[in-house]
Amino acid sequence: MTQPTDIRGEHLHTALSLAASGVPVLPLRAGKVPFGNCRRCADNACGGRPNMKTPGPCACPAPCHGWAAATTDPHAINSSTWARAWREAAAVAYHPGGADLTVVDLDTPAAVAWAGRTLPSTQTVATTRGEHWIYRGAMRSMNAVREGVDIKSTMAYARWLGPGTGTMSDLPDAVRALAVKEPSTVRPAPQAITVPARAGDEECRHRTPAYLDRGITMAEQRITEACGAIHTTVYRTFLAVLSTHGRCGCLTGTHIARLFAAAQAKGESPRHCTDAWANARTRLGL
Known about the structure:
Layout: H1 5-20, E1 25-29, E2 33-34, H2 74-77, H3 83-88, E3 91-94, E4 101-106, H4 109-118, E5 123-126, E6 131-136, E7 142-146, E8 149-152, E9 158-159, E10 169-170, H5 173-176, H6 209-224, H7 230-245, H8 253-265, H9 270-284
Helix pairs in contact: 6-7, 6-8, 7-9
């Protein structure tokens, strides 16, 4: 739904003001989600910029590729290629890690109470369901580090809800420790995939290292960039990988471990990963 001119102008003014202070910004659509990829990058045809191995800013002129579109360049923000996005924008977001910040997203009253007992005081911003606690310093982003608590910093975005109150503190070890998970004793043990031998001497195209590696990298990115419905995203990603690569025996334990690691970095447990993989295999009759 297109925003009224005054709201649209307010979003653009806010974005330019934040950019001038060194905070990379991007527009959000309704539902707190980024704008989709441009035509040349539809379905990640461009190879998925950026990916987990080479994080960096989006090279597209329009706000493409989620958090990586965030910029402090006023010319880009105010350009004609961003005009449509601002016409349709429902909110302004920013990349905390790009501004050397970390947002502890407290999504419930219980989470806010826990932070009040556990974390050093800092700048706080009220949200619709809780609070954002903002610290100076960047770290790895991770969802569901505990009940009702997400960390948004590098390779993530947070909605701009105003300057908040209080004095910003340096990122404490107590927050960094939230993103350090205990080593799991449960390791993914997917069953071997057996299929009838292919006719003739034609080599399975999925065995081409570049083809398969690109597919796994895109799947990792899809999971990493998920902003909600993590369980569903992980299952659908596993399903997509298996539907493309699961019938010819080309997937190895290393490939599957990469997918499980991406899912666990988003807060999924080893058990959830194993169940999602098994359910996807069952769905495809593997």
